[in-house]
Amino acid sequence: MGFCGNAICIMGRKKSSAGGLAVDAPVRVRAGVAAPEFPEIDCGGWTGRVSELIGAKTDPKYVVEWDHATLARLPKGYEARCEEKGLYYRMSCFAPDELEPLADGSAE
Fold this sequence. Notes:
The protein has helices at 68-72, 78-84, and strands at residues 2-4, 7-9, 26-29, 34-35, 38-42, 47-54, 61-66, 91-94, 99-101. The protein is mainly beta. It has a single domain (2-101), classed as SH3 type barrels, CATH 2.30.30. It starts with a strand and ends in a 7-residue tail after the last strand.
């Protein structure tokens, strides 16, 4: 099972999508992308690793688990807001065009 926003996505864990990112690939959220659960929070520049690929081939979503650097600089109150909504603050779900691969593999 994967978590995407408030919904639980029941899909098999996939290694990659056609031409997409593989599970465990280091990624960065593109500039100007809002947190899916909180549109007022800009999470552009946040980094982590793809932990799961969910959804249909025509509409894939990547579950990204944040790295230590991102967790250390989360906005004040973000963790509490996630917990209030029953969300896990250490990860989020994104469309392919909202992420960019990190060439140097620098996500922890």
